[in-house]
């Protein structure tokens, strides 16, 4: 059967894959992208970031949004708008090794280093104190930032953070950076979408999610895919070997935990024995344990949501976020 021209065009549109540069060149950020140039580990580096002023009467506060491993500052698009409308100045950086920021080949990635980079960015913007909001891997980074720079944190918000358990201690085998790199080179758009469908959106896909799949996959499809995969491998090893869960009791800042209960994210579970993998990533249980471990913590649960509640159910999520921020 012959395809009509309209059908052929539709198929071509559906199968077209975005291609972006190694620093996400070609992707449209929701707000003007700015660049912070600095030196780290004897290298000249750049961090891309969004700096969005209050759109309504300013409340004098700043919110810093830290993205996850499979995300970028741009993924916070709706949250930025909501917080700006609530009077916040909003800073959303891309960490070194991710998205619009530098992709160094030789770099000692650590949460301590990324926290220091973030602190240097905030200092350059004359921000002395802020509400630090981290999602997924950004939650691990936010916790490390709160531990390293307690005087700079007005409130800590952790949105389905990973790192609520120590995967290596739980029995997940170690994988070298070389092994992780080879796995990253096999990344496909379909693989990214299927992973997000399972863990982020509880099996229900909406067309607006495709933008975030394209954002992630576009760097693997572009001319810098090798260095993108290399940095992803380095940071995958970082989050596996640098747990923060054992230090939760030392967090001083008032902490808000926003937990989607359908989430089962557990990095490395795919290489663990079945009995180990089955018990990992139990966010309803992990949320409760974390709320008990952090001295001044408030837990808000979304039992029906997955790993990215701010994208999956933005109205519900942001209503809860603003309610808890306003009580601070």
SSE layout and pairings?
Layout: H1 5-15, E1 33-40, E2 43-52, E3 62-66, H2 77-85, E4 89-93, H3 111-124, E5 130-135, H4 137-148, E6 153-159, H5 167-170, H6 177-184, H7 189-199, H8 210-221, H9 225-241, E7 255-260, H10 274-279, H11 283-293, E8 297-302, H12 309-312, H13 314-326
Parallel strand pairs: 3-4, 3-5, 5-6, 6-7, 7-8
Antiparallel strand pairs: 1-2, 2-4
Helix pairs in contact: 3-4, 6-9, 7-8
Provide a descriptive summary of the structure in words.
Residues 64-314 form the AB hydrolase-1 domain. Keywords: Hydrolase. GO terms for molecular function: monoacylglycerol lipase activity. Pfam families: Abhydrolase_1. By secondary structure, this protein is of the alpha/beta class. The protein has a single domain, classed as Rossmann fold (3-Layer(aba) Sandwich). Helix content is 40%, strand content 16%. The protein is built from 13 helices and eight strands. It has helices at 5-15, 77-85, 111-124, 137-148, 167-170, 177-184, 189-199, 210-221, 225-241, 274-279, 283-293, 309-312, 314-326, and strands at residues 33-40, 43-52, 62-66, 89-93, 130-135, 153-159, 255-260, 297-302. The chain has an eight-stranded mixed sheet, sandwiched between helices. A hairpin with a 2-residue loop joins strand 1 (33-40) and strand 2 (43-52). The radius of gyration is 19 Å and the shape is globular. It starts with a helix and ends with a helix.
